[in-house]
Amino acid sequence: MKIRRLSRWAFVVAFGAHAGFALAAAPMAEHPQAETQTLDLAKRAIALRSVAGPGDETPKVAALFADALVKGGFRAKDVQIIRAGSTAYLIARWPGTDPTLKPVVLLGHMDVVEAQSKDWQRDPFTPVVENGYLFGRGSTDMKLDDTLAIATLSELRRQGFKPRRGIVVAFSGDEETTMKTGALIADRLRDAELVLNVDGANGVLDERTGKPAYFTWEGAEKTYADFEMTVTNPGGHSSEPRAVNAIDELASALLRLQAYRFKPELNALTRTYFEHAAQWEKPETGAAMRAFAADPGNQKAIDVLSADPSMIGKIGTTCVVTMIRGGHAFNALPQRATANINCRIFPGHPRLAIMRELSDAAKDPQIQFRDATEGSVATDASPIRPDVMNALRMAVEGVYPGLPVVAAMSSGASDSMWFRALGVPSYGISPIFIKNSDEFAHGLNERTPVMTIRPSLDILLSTISSLTR
Questions:
Q1: Alpha-carbon gap, residue 149 to 167, rounded angstroms
Q2: Beta strand pairing status for 236-237 and 336-345?
Q3: Residue-level pLDDT at 11
Q4: Residues in the chain with pLDDT values less than 50
Q5: Are 184 and 296 found together in one domain?
Q6: 2 part of a folded domain
Q7: Closest residue by Cα to residue 456 from 371, 404, 414, 395
Q8: 363 Ramachandran zone, left/alpha/beta (phi>0; psi -120 to 50)
Q9: How many structural domains does the chain have?
């Protein structure tokens, strides 16, 4: 449902080293079986077209993952695939030695965003490893993360690990669309102690050196919303043009919305992020971040941050047109034209208020707005739990000593919101390290560096074992 990594943004520096710290990777343990399994399973999953609509192969991904979990040591009776319409979701349980303790949920999703082969340099559903990258739809969002989680649990079993607190693997099947299976999963697992969502935040590689710059974890998210705007008209014969044309009217309003900017804003958490994270950005961006933290009305800082796709979502609500439909025949004046406006709402603003603001910005009383949001609820941030923070700090420290660990908030929706809505803390902890410039989730030529697999496994092995032992 969301643009995965560019949309994430840190708001609290939880742990970290000073700028200029001489970072050196710690010797990483080798887990050849887990590394091989991660990549091979990711390739097989990417090859399955788990896209909503006719031919959705998400149930096949679920079967692939279920088989891998059973081969990795899960009892077949503890692995369930539950069909939900054309899709499916998976729940697998690894019982803990202390049944009185609530389980930890390892969360992800199996579906991907649609991809048109004709637009890609490589077929999106034919996985390819080239120049050190795994290419294919889902390589970043998020089949590689799924297989990292599966391989990690298989490795823990090989090592003889016995969790005191139970572990539940839960993969939804429609996170990129209606998110209904995520809600079903959360309802079934509402007794969980906490959720570790491998579809959230990530490690960031320095653009110049390619070395790890910092690691983020995700504790909150903006509210997802879709608003439908519609123009209707009596229409008529195309040989008799009229002054008012539904498509023209819609297009004019869309241009006004394109030029509209919601008021930039801060809260205590985001101010802390801009003040601290500026040191990791290029000079112009870093200066704008500090200036914005000091004064959210600083127009120069706003202009710089708004021009950066990875930053504009960090300074307030954003709305953008994502789909348009209009007309009913080549030789007729359009009777209806409709557009979908997708918004990521800064915490504290109800959807109705944003829809009204859009209507005012469109400046056309003839345009009707409707809240078309499906599968989204506003939620509070998860608490900053010392056990989770310590587990993440130790995991990252074990691979990259001194690497800053930073909390993050997503500008889009994830399945974490369903758990947060039920009062279950959820934390995004994707262990993948990637450059911002290599971020193509939901876009063309999606890819992720293969070199991230080994440290990702180490981070997950440490985090999961720390929180369940």
A1: 12
A2: unpaired
A3: 40
A4: 1-23
A5: no
A6: no
A7: 395
A8: left
A9: 2
